[in-house]
Amino acid sequence: MSNKRPLTPPFPVCRFTFADGRRCTLPASAESNGLCYAHTHAAIRPLRRSDLVRVLSNPDDAPPNATQIKRFLAKLPRAMAEGLITQKEVRNFTYLCNVLLQCERVSKQSAAKSASPKRARPVTPNKDAHNESNHLIVYPTNS
């Protein structure tokens, strides 16, 4: 006789996922939308300023990427609702985040332009210098 748990239990399991990726194994409550009783009634921890800073910080001091900036922007309404920051600070943070997002877009576009090979466009000489025997196409030189 085996003492192992079955791979799929005969009852629905809580859908809560812990920060380290593990799943809760308690049975789900019928009225809790897929969560167990403990996770349905768990108190939500209040947001702190360090939570906001942690979203934007990188261990190698690199500037935040677009995903981090958008996560930060998503936390601002909750931070204001909890009284952590004022409406004026929300406006300032939103403006600064939009500037950061725009800078990232521009830097990606300029990197893509510099990575693509430049093709020379043919330049025809002006009409004064053109005659029937001279059908040369002049290409610009990079000087």
What would your notes on this structure say?
This protein has 143 residues and is an all-alpha fold. The protein has two domains: 8-42; 49-115. The protein is 40% helix and 0% strand. The chain is built from four helices and no strands.
Brief rundown of the structure:
The chain contains four helices and no strands.
Global outline:
flat
Helix content: 25-40%
Flag low-confidence runs.
Answer: none
* Structural class by secondary-structure content: mainly alpha
Radius of gyration: 30 Å
Our count of helices gives 4
Oligomer classification: single chain
What is the succession of H and E elements? HHHH
Number of strands: 0
Give the biggest sheet.
none
Supply database-style keywords:
143 residues, mainly alpha, 2 domains, flat
Any chance you could write out the topology, listing elements then pairs?
Elements: H1 37-40, H2 49-56, H3 66-81, H4 87-115
